[in-house]
Fold:
Amino acid sequence: MDMEIILALILMAMLIAGSLFGLFVQSRLKEHHRSPASSEAIRLVVLMLVTLAALILGLLVTSVKADFDNHDDLYRQYGIALIRLDIRLREFGPEATPIRKTLRAYTAMAILQSWPDEAAPSGTYPTQFTPLFRGSGETKQITAALRSIDEAIQTLNPVTPYQTRIYPILRENLTTLENVRWILVEGASSRVSSVFMTALMFWLLIVFFMFGIVAPRNSLIYLSIILASLSVASTLFIILDLDSPMDGVIKISSAPLRDALLHMDQPPAP
Structure:
């Protein structure tokens, strides 16, 4: 089971338990603590906390959704950059064929690293990856392949006027590919602080506890507590799942890079 689902279920259980504990405490309060004035004051505090919690949850959902969409757009740009570079290498001539093979292996490795749970692309390429350094999102194998492509393109010697004209475009396409790749690597880490999420969960627990103190005891209230807990927990799940765009239930599609790989495998036009 995904960690996001586990955390959401834990939060739901905590909120239900907090509400039930509030109902228990309510039954033990002395009469003057349950006066209409006391209940109204608690309701005002709960309303304030609920408003702030809703605002924070809404901002978090908006923020992680924007980051997710940005990652999705970057992977589309990544696929386009791979296709454009392959097209220019194909146009350059037979001298660039070894570079195209390395580019294909690089693309296959990028797919396998980013989507390890999906079917691995066909072909011969490294399938075991070693991080560049501890905690790094980049691997030695993929970095070496990209460096090899860069060095090989630098050694190309344009001879014909057409090769001379497209060579700068080739270099520009490679630079674009490298830029997009490193943006993705640097942006792969979580944007949501675990300390902040823990504090928010504690805050929500206090809200549900205080709600239990002033709520009447009947089956409709119990149902409302369960539904409210489920709603808040599902919001937390969405936040955590969108914050991990490469895995989980909601994740970025590998289609842009797989489309680029299919393009590379196409035979040359007659």
Observations:
- Residues 92 and 162 are 8 Å apart (CA to CA).
- Residues 36-92 form the longest helix (57 residues).
- The chain is about 75% helix and 0% strand.
- The mean pLDDT is 88.
